[in-house]
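name: query_chain
kind: protein
chains: 1
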Amino acid sequence: MLNFVGAPLTRLMGYTPGWSGLGLDLPKDVFLQWAGWVMSERYMFDDPNLRALENFPHYKGALRALCISDDPWATRPAVELLCSGFKSIEPDILTITPADAGAARIGHFGFFKPEHRDTLWRGAAEWIEAAE
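structure:
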C-alpha cells in the first residue's frame, strides 16, 4: 500500500492527506522517509543518511518507551526494535491498554489527545520529573 498508493498519492498531492488512512496530514518528505523506513528490515536503523543514529549507542540517560496495546503500527516488537539502538542502557518498555487510561481506544496517535491529559500525560510527566 505504501509503494503503490501512498507514495504516488503523496507525490501527486505534495503531502499525504490524513483521509488516506494515516489519520492526519503529513508533509511529503516526512511520509516518504517514513515509508522507506517501514520497508526496511531494521526500520530507520537501515537508513545510511540518518546521521543521528551514531548517537544512539552512546546515550546513557533514562529511557521509557510506551507501547499502546491497540496501536496497529507501533506494536511491541516495533517498539523493542526502536529501543534496540540504545546499547548503553536498558530501556523501560511499558505496555498500556485503553483500560489503563479509562478509554475505549487509544490507537497510534491517541496518546496526544487532550482527553488523556489526566491519565497518560500525567503518568509521562511524573516519570520525566522523577528522572531529572
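note: The mean pLDDT is 92.
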